[in-house]
């Protein structure tokens, strides 16, 4: 999404650690739904009217009912407020929630940005013929945040206010502006990424997409804040077919694990006499599964065939797990992978795999060539050589405690990654898109190649088996897979090669960093079929393809364990750069024969 966030705005992450919530903690929620804006005709919109919305009041009502059922005090749902009323209810709410544990504000309606500042619009906002009118008629988000800043220990702000407005064509930016610094005790979620607009839902919907996503997250078993915004983001991406991606902001000191519903263990249900046999069967299956989980299910390294390929530059014979080194020592070391079986492998996840997503439809793909993949992610040292060599214009600096050197490079977008690939190819004499060596160029991997490399011959959710621990990978250990035990949350990347490699000899194929893929993201695998290892609509093969979203694979230090599954997929725009858990790794097809 990343982000996650693409879904959660990975670069400005909400970092989660445990925070116990007292049993009688005060929870206060303010919900505002503004539908009744004037001027809904195309002519009125052209004249600067804001235009009526369909579902803002419905959204506020539905969320209010859900939050009430979870112990929040909701005085009333505030609908179609003018400016003076909005200012009054925010002030009253801040006073009412003073010294509370949690203060939650939800606003659904029109919003706008001017010179990096955000404004929430009341229903009496006049038609816009100058930007100063927005400032005069709107309620400043900065003011709202300041007003509630001393109201509670934790502030949660959900803004379904990224609507298209009459300001867009005049200021050049739609939606809301990015938040550059959020208070450490405040978590702010947008319905759409910065500078992007959000939908009020498709015709016939009774709730907007963001509200639908939040409701789904709140109604999940034992929901906490991290899980709710993650679930909401993924649901919005699904509903919008990746046209809308929510974004969550919070400073690095926001280390909160707030539970909307107190976690409760599953209670055994009494069985009817007629169900005795079925209950016994289920109990036996559960026992067998528990026994399997006690034993490491990482498969032993297979006996790979020899003489698979040749080194593209030296002609040296290569076997599986041999290293393909750059003749000048540049870039990451590349590991020769065993050739895929002639009938390929099953890509995606079976319908029985826990916590799978709808874009993981299982299908068979082939890879009719031998290739090498970088043993690790590209590091800061690797990237520095490209910058010094004039190949990379972007020079991401180490951030805070993330380090440099052998740490994986972060804050690079898809376009930056392609610059690095082009530079590395030039250093071995491969330029342009023709010539005898073009097939053996360095490149970003395809999703087919990455999942094959990540699985390393396994068919389980992870290459470590049915579970993965923080002793085996770097992820947010507060959120283990299934009902497994919690682990560490390191809150940053780890040096490449810090964990044991998979059976193919590759490090960090799950966790630490997401890696850019060459593919244009397509949610429905059935539209693609078997590409025989190639990336879907990559620029090199489809030069005229306009590709907004690129695929991401691998999970990261910030994400939950479920996102480290070999079949898991995310996507984001090619230009997003400020993510602290996105990097890259490389592949090369290899010549075969003597």
Secondary-structure map:
Layout: E1 2-4, E2 6-8, E3 27-33, H1 42-46, H2 56-69, E4 77-79, H3 83-96, E5 100-108, E6 111-114, E7 117-120, H4 131-137, E8 139-140, H5 141-148, E9 152-160, H6 168-171, E10 186-190, H7 209-218, H8 225-239, E11 247-249, H9 276-294, E12 309-310, E13 317-318, E14 323-324, E15 334-336, E16 345-347, E17 363-365, E18 371-374, H10 380-388, H11 414-427, E19 442-443, H12 447-455, E20 514-520, E21 549-553, E22 570-573, E23 582-583, E24 587-589
Parallel strand pairs: 3-4, 3-5, 5-9, 9-10, 20-23
Antiparallel strand pairs: 6-7, 7-8, 10-11, 12-13, 14-15, 15-18, 16-17, 18-24, 19-24, 20-21, 21-22
Helix pairs in contact: 2-7, 7-8
Descriptive report:
By secondary structure, this protein is an alpha+beta fold. 22% of the residues lie in helices and 16% in strands. It has twelve helices and 24 strands. The protein has helices spanning 42-46, 56-69, 83-96, 131-137, 141-148, 168-171, 209-218, 225-239, 276-294, 380-388, 414-427, 447-455; strands spanning 2-4, 6-8, 27-33, 77-79, 100-108, 111-114, 117-120, 139-140, 152-160, 186-190, 247-249, 309-310, 317-318, 323-324, 334-336, 345-347, 363-365, 371-374, 442-443, 514-520, 549-553, 570-573, 582-583, 587-589. Strands 4-3-5-9-10-11 form a six-stranded mixed β-sheet, with helices on both faces. Strands 14-15-18-24-19 form a five-stranded antiparallel β-sheet. The protein has a four-stranded mixed β-sheet with strand order 22-21-20-23. α2 runs parallel beside α7 and α7 packs across α8. The longest helix has 19 residues, at 276-294.
